[in-house]
Amino acid sequence: xxxxxxxxxxxxxxxxxxxxxxxxxxxxxxxxxxxxxxxxxxxxxxxxxxxxxxxxxxxxxxxxxxxxxxxxxxxxxxxxxxxxxxxxxxxxxxxxxxxxxxxxxxxxxxxxxxxxxxxxxxxxxxxxxxxxxxxxxxxxxxxxxxxxxxxxxxxxxxxxxxxxxxxxxxxxxxxxxxxxxxxxxxxxxxxxxxxxxxxxxxxxxxxxxxxxxxxxxxxxxxxxxxxxxxxxxxxxxxxxxxxxxxxxxxxxxxxxxxxxxxxxxxxxxxxxxxxxxxxxxxxxxxxxxxxxxxxxxx
Length: 298
Prior knowledge:
By secondary structure, the protein is mostly helical. The protein has helices at 24-40, 46-67, 75-87, 94-109, 120-131, 147-163, 167-189, 194-201, 207-216, 227-251, 258-264, 266-297; strands spanning 88-89, 137-138. The protein has one domain. The chain contains twelve helices and two strands, in the order αααβααβααααααα. It has a two-stranded antiparallel ribbon. It is globular, with a radius of gyration of 22 Å.
């Protein structure tokens, strides 16, 4: 008698590897740290990075117990802490801890209708840049670019972001960043050449923009809900950043002035302005819709 090639009816189905979506971001940000550090040695203070992560997780646990009386899942705090640890550049360790603390505090203290409207780590970085510019800078293109590292991170990051259904945000931002890079090459260099375009587009291949694109502008809790709104905000962030960069080059504001700080760290300030504005508009629209429905029901 021929043997059946099918599994017996009583056998359990084959198990597929399943990873909770909450851990996609921690996996990706850890990959960026690992590949970036091996390739570029970009961490100014490894101890500061470790302390920033611990401060972020510790603040998350403390504030969650204080406000909700529940033990939180610290995946989000880990992402915030490691992002701060990578992006903040300082020879002292206190800026890493302070930035992480500000980031997590903002999640609990700055809320509108139970929503926090700023990306936590982005707000922490911008706050430190404004309050302590002499002691804090951010990771930039000077960290170096590795083609292999870039391909690995962008490939894995794109797959993860696609599975989280937020790839359209990254795609929109990257497309307009490249378009504006060509525009700046023409405006600031008087013509577009391979060299001038490559210089303007180069930051996109570095760890700073990998974190910014995959985590800050796609943060589910601080982005608007509609697909069109998310695409529009990504476009506006890229546009605001482009204007800040052009201003920094044409106006050449003195070092240490507000204009210089904003132009030098343009992506963070662009998101700080556009993200909350979009969230507040969406909240106001929903509030108006609820009032209209209530009036119609009455």
